[in-house]
Amino acid sequence: MKRLGILISGRGSNMMALADAVRERRIPQAEIALVVSNAATAAGIERARGRSIPAVVLDHRGKTREEHDRAVAAELERCGVDLVCLAGYMRLLSPWFIRRYEHRVVNIHPSLLPAFPGLDAQKQAFDYGVKFTGCTVHLVDEELDHGPIVKQAVVAVEPDDSVETLSARILREEHKLYPQAVALLLSGRYRIEGRRVVEM
């Protein structure tokens, strides 16, 4: 049984999508071992506890980035986590953490990377006037919204879209794409070729 650790900062909608996929065996032979939030106000903490998923808050205030990451890692190690999933986690991870979990940290971002990294990616795409955007699941490295790409999904920008309607459609694709990518990574049936994760 593979064990997931999920890091959140907010509502935890992608966390819940992963929880649903685990429960429905779309991510086979897996369980969510722990949810960690850096924010006590994160709605996702109560949502996780409502599913009887262990959840803890580790406040980052007053700590260096690495000090906080070491505290997070200690909890992940205690729970025997195999793969760390970022699900709306609004903190950059320290180089120490990335090295400690090399190729075992995965993130989902609401754009077709490398386009529109960073915050407000949906608004960036909308304002730029692109016809297509989407979402990307990638392994995490020391650069922001970087690292080998696992899977992507394309979302068309409709003529009558707003940032809000576009964001909602991208989020629906995220909820489908993230479990697929996590299932692939846990299966081990892939290899990393440069910036690509290639299914075997």
Q: Can you put this structure into words, describing what you see?
A:
Helix content is 36%, strand content 26%. It is α/β, with parallel strands linked by helices and 200 residues long. It folds into 2 domains: 1-101, Formyl transferase, N-terminal domain (Rossmann fold, 3-Layer(aba) Sandwich); 107-200, Formyl transferase, N-terminal domain (Rossmann fold). The strands form 2 sheets. A 7-stranded mixed sheet has the order 3-2-1-4-5-6-7, sandwiched between helices. A two-stranded antiparallel sheet has the order 8-9. The longest helix is centred in the last third of the chain and has 25 residues, at 163-187. 42% of the residues are buried.
Radius of gyration from CA coordinates: 16 Å
Identify the CATH class of the largest domain: Alpha Beta
- Between the first and last Cα atoms, what is the distance in angstroms? 21 Å
CATH fold naming of the largest domain: Rossmann fold
Instruction: Please indicate the count of domains.
Output: 2
Helix run count: 6
- Return the string of H and E elements: EHEHEHEHEHEEHEE
Strand order of the largest sheet: 3-2-1-4-5-6-7
Low-confidence runs: none
Strand portion? 25-35%
Gross morphology:
globular
Approximate helicity band: 25-40%
CATH-scheme architecture of the largest domain = 3-Layer(aba) Sandwich
Give the number of DSSP strands.
9
